[in-house]
Design goal:
By secondary structure, the protein is α+β, with helices and mostly antiparallel strands. Helices cover about 30% and strands about 30% of the residues. The chain folds into three domains: about 120 residues, no CATH class; about 190 residues, Beta Polymerase, domain 2; about 200 residues, Rossmann fold.
C-alpha cells in the first residue's frame, strides 16, 4: 500500500506494484526517472519509451543484468533526475533473503546500469583517486596520437561532460576520443587508421580494433589496471561529417579545427572549436539537459553507410564474450577433435586451433611436446591461459579474425613457416559464421597446411537436440553438413571423412558432424 504522503506528493508516480519482475506504473505522461537502491542510482528509464503499455498500466521490467542481484531487501526510490524530486519510495523485499541488496562486482565495487544497460562502475561511484588515473590516461593517449600526426579531441560523453558540466558525467563509465582525418575517401581513412594502430603498437600500446576506423587504446596504470580509451575516427566529405560510430551530418570543418579547450575535472583538454554544433550533431539540440537514459537513435541510412565502409569485423564478438564470461567457472576439457588429431598425426610438430576459446586443446598439445598455436578473435577467452603459459615456448596465442582479410592472409602465412607436420582443429566455430567467414576459414587452413600432409579437423553442430548442448558449446544453431561439403569443394579441398555422432545416448540428444579435410589432391 502507498502511504498518504506519497499519494499527495506533487508529481508523484502512481506506482502500483514493485516485485522481482519490475515496476507497474499507473497511467502517466512521458517522463525521465532515476531508480535508486538504498539511495544509490542503479538504473534510469523513460517511462513510455522503455515501458510496456497494458490495460493495468505501464510495466517496466528489470533489465536482465540486474536480475541476479534481486534477492534481498532494499529501499527502492524513484526520482526526477532534473529536479531531484522524489516520485516514489518504498522498502521492498525481493526473493527469500532478508539482508540488504548490494549491486557490486566481485571486488565489492558498486555497479550501475549505463545507457546501454550494461552493469559498469559509473563515475558517480568513484572518488578523485579513481578519476585521476583516467585523466592521466586521456592525456597520455592524446599525446600519443599527436605523435602520430593526429589532433584528437574529447568526443561523445566525455566531451559532453567537459563542455556542459566541467566534469565526467556521473552515469557514464568510459572515456571517448575522436579525430577528423585530412583524407576525404573512406579507403584512405582506413589506411590511415591502420597506420595509426601500427605506430601506437610500436610505441608499446596494446590496441584493440572495433572497426576499420575505430580503436581502443589500452593504458596500463600503476596498479596494473587495464584502462581502455575509445578512439573514433572521422572524416569530412562533400560537406558532411562522418564520425564513428553515430554521426553523419552536414558540417563545416572549421567547426572542429582549430581545436578549442574545455575543463574536465580541473584539467584542460582539446574539444571541437564549435561546441554547440558538435554536441548538437551528437546528442541533438537538447544536449544541455542531462539524460541518464539517453539512447542514440542513429538513422538507418547512417548505419548502412558505416556498415558498408567500416564495420563487419566485430560480428559475433559480443556474443562470444558473453559465452566465455558465462562459462568461465566451467572446467575446461580437451576436445574429441584434439584427441583425434593426436591419434592420426603421431609425428605432429605444430597444432593450430582456430577458435581456441580458453585454450584447453592448445595446453594439452603443449604438454605432449607439440608446439601449439591458439587463434581466436575474442582475447578475453584465452587471456588467462596465455598468462599461465607465458614462459612456455611451445605455446602461442594470437588474435585472429576470420572476417578481416589481413588476418586471414597474414597469420596463416606466419604459421606456415613453423615446423611441420602441421594440423588444424576447429571446434564449434563454423556454425557462427556466414559463407564469407567459412570460406576464409578454409582458405586460412589451406595456407597453414601447405607443404605438409596435415589435415583440417572440423567439428560442428549438425542437429540441435533438447539437451542444451548448443548453449553449452556456444554453437547456437545447427549447420547443414551439405553446406560445408559444397564450400569445401569450392575451396578446392576434399572431405576425407564425414561422421555424424550423437553427443549422448539420451533421447533427443544433439548431433555433431566431424569432417577431416585436406587440399593435397
Amino acid at each position: 500500500m502507498r502511504s498518504l504522503s506519497q499519494l499527495r506528493r506533487p508529481g508523484a508516480l502512481d506506482v502500483l506494484q514493485v516485485d522481482a519482475t519490475g515496476l507497474l506504473v499507473g497511467a502517466s505522461r512521458e517522463r525521465l526517472v532515476d531508480v535508486a537502491f538504498d539511495g544509490r542510482r542503479i538504473w534510469s528509464f523513460w517511462l513510455l519509451r522503455d515501458g510496456e503499455q497494458g490495460e493495468d498500466g505501464v510495466r517496466l521490467r528489470w533489465p536482465k543484468p540486474l536480475r541476479p542481484f534481486l534477492d534481498g531487501v532494499t529501499e527502492v526510490t524513484l526520482t526526477d533526475p532534473g529536479t531531484d524530486t522524489v516520485l516514489f519510495s518504498r522498502t521492498v523485499r525481493f526473493g527469500d533473503r532478508t539482508d540488504r541488496i548490494h549491486v557490486v562486482n566481485a571486488a565489492g565495487r558498486p555497479l550501475a546500469l549505463d545507457k546501454s544497460l550494461k552493469l559498469v562502475e559509473t563515475f558517480d561511484t568513484r572518488d578523485a583517486a579513481h578519476v585521476e588515473p583516467l585523466l592521466d590516461a586521456i592525456d597520455e593517449v592524446l599525446g600519443a596520437l599527436r605523435q602520430v600526426g593526429l589532433d584528437a579531441f574529447l568526443a561523445y560523453g566525455t566531451a559532453l561532460g567537459a563542455i556542459r558540466d566541467g566534469g565526467l558525467i556521473g552515469h557514464d563509465s568510459d572515456a571517448d576520443l575522436g579525430y577528423v582525418s585530412t583524407y576525404d575517401h573512406p579507403v584512405d581513412v582506413i589506411r590511415e587508421s591502420f597506420r595509426i594502430q601500427r605506430a601506437l603498437t610500436d610505441m608499446g600500446y596494446r590496441v584493440t580494433r572495433y572497426s576499420a576506423i575505430a580503436l581502443k587504446v589500452h593504458v596500463e596504470e600503476s596498479d596494473g589496471l587495464d584502462r581502455g580509451l575509445d578512439v573514433f575516427g572521422g572524416f569530412m566529405r562533400e560537406g558532411t561529417l562522418y564520425l564513428m560510430g553515430e554521426i553523419a551530418v552536414p558540417f563545416e570543418r572549421d567547426w572542429i579545427y582549430p581545436l578549442g579547450t574545455a575543463s574536465l575535472e580541473g584539467r584542460e583538454f582539446p574539444v571541437p572549436a564549435n561546441a554547440d554544433k558538435f554536441l548538437t550533431a551528437t546528442y541533438g539540440p537538447r544536449w544541455r539537459v542531462p539524460d541518464p537514459a539517453y539512447k542514440f537513435t542513429t538513422p538507418a541510412s547512417t548505419i548502412e553507410l558505416f556498415n558498408g565502409w567500416f564495420r563487419g569485423m566485430r560480428t559475433g564478438r559480443a556474443g562470444w564474450h558473453g559465452y566465455h564470461k558465462r562459462t568461465a567457472h566451467h572446467e575446461p576439457t580437451v576436445s574429441a577433435v584434439a584427441r583425434q588429431v593426436a591419434e592420426r598425426h603421431p609425428d605432429l610438430a605444430t597444432y593450430v586451433d582456430i577458435g581456441c576459446g580458453r585454450g584447453a586443446d592448445v595446453a594439452w598439445f603443449a604438454d605432449r611436446g607439440v608446439s601449439a598455436v591458439g587463434l581466436d578473435f575474442q582475447p578475453y577467452a584465452y587471456e588467462a591461459e596465455a598468462q599461465r603459459r607465458a614462459d612456455d615456448p611451445r605455446v602461442t596465442f594470437q588474435l585472429f579474425n576470420l572476417l578481416e582479410l589481413r588476418h586471414v592472409l597474414a597469420v596463416p602465412a606466419w604459421i606456415a613457416r613453423m615446423p611441420g607436420p602441421r594440423a588444424v582443429g576447429c571446434v564449434h566455430v563454423v556454425e557462427r559464421l556466414g559463407h564469407r567467414g567459412r570460406m576464409n576459414l578454409l582458405r586460412a587452413s589451406r595456407m597453414v597446411l601447405a607443404g605438409t600432409t596435415g589435415t583440417l579437423h572440423l567439428q560442428f553442430l549438425s542437429e540441435k537436440g533438447r539437451d542444451g548442448y548448443a548453449r553449452r558449446t556456444g554453437a547456437r544453431k545447427p549447420l547443414d553438413p551439405a553446406v560445408v561439403l559444397a564450400e569445401v569443394a569450392e575451396s578446392g579441398g576434399r572431405v576425407l571423412e564425414d561422421v555424424r555422432t550423437r553427443v549422448s545416448s539420451d533421447p533427443g540428444s544433439s548431433q555433431v558432424c566431424r569432417m577431416i579435410i585436406d587440399w593435397n589432391a
